[in-house]
Design a protein that fits this description.
Chain lengths: 302, 234
């Protein structure tokens, strides 16, 4: 067994490093830089039942040490995923995580039933997308609505269920406890933080939706604080993300209690970010004589 | 990491940078990152302006934070250069016309040079529009058979779109929209090299999509060069 092998919901990951949803396509886009089979897992682009063209206007812009996006869940739809993209993801050799968004509880349930036919390892329920008008993040803003959708999805899915939380909830630990009680098998956080920019030349907001999601290194300390408090609030595994760009960032999330971590925006700036993080974690284990990375999981809470 | 061979101003606002061991076709681009620190974070999409002996040059306008930092780099410095990305211009055995607006002339020069090398008997016309002082004209005069320059106003108003010439346009969005309308009126074939804000450059983030007659396309991966008749401007 390697020092980085990580068990997440019964799935053996080669290492705790997972590509974050929406930043790694369906797994093949960065093949020119590295073999995706080195990754612990890949979370695919967020799906919706019928697919979507996403938002109009400018969709990405830079912020100091970070970026904002307003993609609006452009995706080919669940049926297309089951037929095509899930096989592409499987062929990468990394664990396959299917990220699912929705506009209504009925949509989430119907999509979950269709995904039962797909060859995936974990279902990541996205109740935290800030860029769609109805639904999305609305489900993740308070414990009650979050629990309702999680309960319904859990009742029909045949895969382990990980629920992705929004940092925009007023009390994220309360939402975490509610989804744990509703049957979630794991929690991932954070999705993007709601932000805004104005183009001073045109005197208009940069994004047609006015607000958009902030990610990247700038949000890392906020994400870490939230991961830490959720790890203390629940017993189920927590996957941490938000601004991770180096192996030391990854270690901080693991020391705060995360079982695994995801990397998103950092890959845009440096396509080798994930393989470098994996290499850094491996070296850290050797130097610190850890047989497995899990030995330092949550160490600051002990 | 790629080394800068030279970097100098061609006008107060426009610079030309050559980067060692880079390659690509006309119409393709690189994501250039002037720093190794996390701010600015993302690469800046910059077209290949020329490529000689495995060293590409990039013609860029100082537009903001990233390009300002690029302009301050010196020969011998290293720069992160990811690419070549995008589809590039398809070579066609035909007379061609280049329509460039401002810094949009950057990729058209490489197209002219490769076209002349492949089809020496074909005619190349360049229609170049500038808001203020023109730049790089001597480059175009060296490869094109005819160079027309306009300062101020719309260069597209002066282009005689015809059926038997293939047109290639690159410039600000309003210019490309006007070019598309004019070309369609005259039934003239036109390719556009589009611009969009980008994060990944490889087709993974869907930050750069543009609407086309066959659904959304990614400017970084499916483009940046599109047939004008396929693009739907918002
Ligand atoms: C395929 C392609 C090829 C290009 N080729 C050239 C070229 O050869 N020469 C050249 O001078 N410019 C080119 N551009 C435009 C160039 O990418 C922008 O001017 C540059 O990104 C501005 O960065 P900045 O940091 O100086 O400006 P800032 O305004 O500080 O940039 C902030 C953010 O917005 C993005 N951005 C700002 N303006 C643009 C724009 N017009 N297009 C896309 N993203 C933008 C930046 O990439 C950055 O992420 C090209 C754009 C594309 C999409
Ligand atoms: C361009 C872009 C698209 C994203 N799309 C999705 C998505 O479809 N589903 C989702 O759950 N999260 C999505 N996210 C959020 C990321 O998965 C991640 O939660 C967030 O960016 C924070 O991590 P980072 O700072 O490492 O990027 C997206 C983020 C970006 C930047
Ligand atoms: S820039 Fe990411 S898909 Fe084009």
């Amino acid at each position: 067994m390697s020092r980085l092998t990580t068990n997440l919901l019964g799935i053996q990951l080669k290492n705790p490093v997972i590509a974050a949803s929406g930043t790694f396509g369906f797994g093949k886009e960065y093949e020119g830089y590295f073999d995706p089979s080195v990754l612990g897992g890949i979370s695919g682009k967020g799906l919706t039942l019928h697919g979507s063209k996403g938002n109009s206007g400018i969709r990405v812009c830079e912020t100091p040490a970070g970026m904002m996006n307003s993609i609006g869940l452009e995706n080919p739809g669940v049926a297309h995923f089951v037929k095509h993209e899930c096989h592409v993801m499987r062929s990468t050799g990394a664990a396959v995580i299917c990220n699912l968004g929705g506009h209504s509880i009925e949509d989430y349930v119907k999509a979950t039933q269709m995904i039962n036919d797909a060859d995936i390892d974990i279902l990541e329920l996205n109740i935290s997308c800030p860029n769609v008008k109805e639904g999305g993040m609305a489900f993740g803003m308070c414990g009650k609505t979050a629990a309702e959708v999680v309960k319904k999805v859990k009742a029909v899915t045949k895969f382990p269920l990980m629920v992705k939380l929004s940092p925009n909830a007023s009390d994220i630990s309360e939402v975490a406890r509610a989804v744990e009680d509703a049957g979630a098998d794991a929690i991932s956080l954070i999705n993007t933080l709601l932000g805004m920019r104005i183009d001073v030349r045109s005197k208009k907001p940069i994004f047609n939706n006015v607000y958009a999601g902030v990610s990247g290194p700038a949000v890392m300390p906020i994400a870490l604080r939230m991961v830490h408090s959720v790890c203390k609030a629940v017993k189920i595994p927590v996957v941490g993300l938000g601004g991770i760009s180096s192996y030391t960032d990854a270690l901080e999330f693991i020391m705060a209690g995360a079982t695994a971590i995801q990397v998103g925006t950092a890959t845009f700036a440096n396509p080798f970010a994930m393989p470098q993080i994996i290499e850094g974690l491996e070296k850290y284990c050797v130097q610190n004589k850890l047989e497995n990375i899990s030995e330092i999981r949550g160490i600051i809470n002990k | 990491m790629p080394v800068i061979l030279q970097n100098s101003h061609v006008s107060p606002e426009v610079c030309l940078m050559t980067i060692k061991n880079t390659s690509g076709r006309a119409g393709q681009f690189y994501m250039l990152r002037p720093t190794k620190v996390l701010d600015p974070l993302l690469g800046r999409p910059i077209s290949i302006h020329d490529c000689v002996d495995g060293n590409c040059s990039f013609l860029y306008r100082i537009a903001g934070k990233g390009t300002k930092l690029m302009s301050e780099m010196r020969a011998g410095d290293t720069i992160e250069a990811y690419g070549p990305y995008g589809n590039g211009f398809e070579p066609v055995d035909s007379d061609i016309r280049l329509i460039g607006g401002g810094i949009g002339i950057a990729p058209l020069y490489f197209l002219a040079r490769t076209h002349k090398a492949m089809y020496p008997n074909r005619v190349i016309e360049a229609y170049l529009g500038f808001v203020e002082k023109p730049f790089m004209l001597q480059y175009f005069r060296a490869v094109a058979d005819f160079v027309y320059v306009r300062v101020g106003g719309y260069i597209t108003a002066d282009v005689p779109f015809e059926e038997n010439v293939i047109n290639y346009a690159c410039g600000p969005n309003p210019m490309m929209k006007a070019a598309k309308e004019e070309a369609e009126k005259k039934n003239s074939k036109l390719f556009l090299s589009l611009e969009a804000h980008m994060a990944c450059g490889v087709g993974a983030c869907l930050g750069c999509t543009c609407p086309t007659v066959s659904g959304n396309k990614r400017v970084c991966k499916d483009g940046p060069v599109f047939l004008a008749s396929e693009v739907s401007f918002e």
